[in-house]
Amino acid sequence: MNLDVFLSLFSLMLISLAVFVTSKKIGVPYTVLLVIVGSLLIPLSHIEFFSFITSFKLTPELLFFVFLPVLIFESAYNMNIRSVTENIYSIGSLAIIGLLVSTLFIGIGGFYIFDAAGFAVPMLVLLLFGAIISSTDPVAVLALFKEYGAPQRLTLIFEGESLFNDATGFAAFLVILDLITHGYHGYASLFDALMSFSIMLGGGIVFGLFMGFIFARLIELVRGNEHLEITLTLLVAHLTFVLTEVISEHLVIAGHEIRLSSIIATLIASMVIGNFGRYKMSPDIEEYMEKFWSYFAFVTNSLVFILMGLLFADLAIDLNIALLPILLAVATVVVGRALAVYPVLWLLNKTGKERAIPRNWMHLLAWGSLRGSLAVIMVLLIPDDLTVPNWSFSFSVKDFVTAVTIGSIYFTLLVKATTIGKVMHALGIDALTDMEQVGYFKSKAQMYEKSLEKLQDLANDQQITQQQYDTLKQQHENLYQIACLECKQAIGKSPKLTENMLRTYALGVEKEHLKEIFLHGEIEEKTYKKITNMLSIQTERIKRGHEQVKSVDEHFPIDSLEQFVLSISRIAFWRDHRFKAEELYRYYRALNKISGNVVKELSALEQSGLSGVFDDSQALAKIITLYQAFQVNTHGKMLAVIKQNEAMLNALNEAAATQAIAVLQGETLDKLYKNEIITSKLYIMLRNEMGSESQRK
């Protein structure tokens, strides 16, 4: 590797940063602009001074073993398992059935479409292209969904489909590539292909679960050592991917080679870390992790999309020859995507397995199906010497598939991505719900209320003159009054809307204080997860217009992943995961504390400036009464636990006091060090002393 390669790599990263800034200013999606700029770099490289710009190349190994695990982990880490399981039928239908429908239509339907246009392409080649191009890429479209305000459930379904159909698409690609390589021998080949496809997905899920829980345990063992925790998340992504490939190369059962899906294994392992392992991380690392992986995904996507532009501009087929097959491919892919969405989701709606997916959502799912990095990876994995019977063209199979794939990607990026905002608006998907409208005006009112408080502080500190204060105060008071009036108008005469807004506010208070309790070590990981899951269920109920709780004593089920972990642990290790007396006491105490905080904040709301927004005293009193009932209920249960274990209370209180003091000492020490009041040498000495004292206790 010479210096030109390094110069090319860092120059491309610098160009990507400039493209990112430009995309924000002109309102063009970042990935779209990257591909365009990448295409323009080819003529630039013909100038001798800039000839180094194309020295850094996309290789199958770099894309497959370095870039792809990063992209999978970053997306899967933030996928909430409870939300996924609630929408598993729609996600699974699109990711598996929809992808297979699209692949088969592009292969079989495309065969007749190309033949009618006088471009006879063998069916197996078009099936290979179908497997490559049918998997969707979430990178560009998810950013647009967030920008234009797509509903949360629609965004989740699209992201879930994009993640899981990466695995099914790649498995289908390998199966079809194997058929081309070894030949098609009738039903026996179809049966082998179906078995291989099923084993890839099933085996990948099992191995991914195994790796995810192994690394979650390792993260727990090194908790407190930030560098090791971050390194383990890097390893879980790449090691899972590589080990799956190693197993696939060497695993033979009854004379049959067994392949596992490295993509599905990495996806499942990443979801385990995101939903189970993250609670075992140090608090600072858990908060930092999303930024860390988001940065890596940003760099990876930047390089992939800008190099994609270079790849298209440097096609082996002459563009005059490639234009017709590209246009035919684009038309076939568009129809294939429609067939993968409308019939599949229509049938799902008929079954009633999930909440119905509206027709306008289907339109957006069909139109917003962009393609990206995985398609490029699969194209580069095609052998250069791949041949099929009756291939009569002067260019190779790989050159043909590369041309139609890159052409289809360009169409989705240049046409679909740039029109998604208009399509969403035309379909009414970006319209605010009643709750969102109230939330919008309520947020404005809160902002202006805080502004008035800040102005008062500035005036008291004599940082602004009395005249400036009076002018700014009048201005922000007017804005505040307008926001309150608009909020009242949005609420109208619907007391339920006000009540739901207050309930959402109360749940936010609970989540905030619960996190503090957990970070201070007052509750265990399983208690934190149990209460978090309970609050998430209540939040989802309010969004759907249902009652927050059925009773103050309602039992909430744990999420499916936690249930699975506990079941395996009971079977394999004979562990009893029921709450011990002291854990049960801390659980009820945490519920009691967060309920008390809600009562305080809601009571204070009556005295704040926001009383002009929430002027429904009946709704406010109703929710305060509910949380007071929660307090009484949990306090009674705390007393019941203590009554059965009277000797436990003193020990628990002493342990809680010791933990609170230790947390306070740690926070004080961190503050002294960050403010440069003590040197790093003293900081390390004091930290070590604190650690030694805690071990002695």
Please name the CATH architecture of the largest domain: Up-down Bundle
Mean pLDDT: 84
Low-confidence segments: none
> Rough shape?
globular
Could you tell me the number of beta strands?
Answer: 2
Strand count, sense and closure of the main sheet? 2 strands, antiparallel
For the record, the CATH class of the largest domain is Mainly Alpha
If you consult CATH, what is the topology of the largest domain? Na+/H+ antiporter like fold
**Could you say how many structural domains there are in total?**
4
Instruction: Enumerate the strands of the largest sheet in spatial order, edge to edge or round the barrel.
Output: 1-2
**Cα gyration radius (Å):** 29 Å
The helicity comes to over 70%
Pairing-aware structural class of the strands and helices? Answer: mainly alpha
Along the chain, the helix and strand elements come as: HHHHHHHHHHEEHHHHHHHHHHHHHHH
**Portion in strands:** under 5%
N-to-C span: 56 Å
Note the total helix count: 25
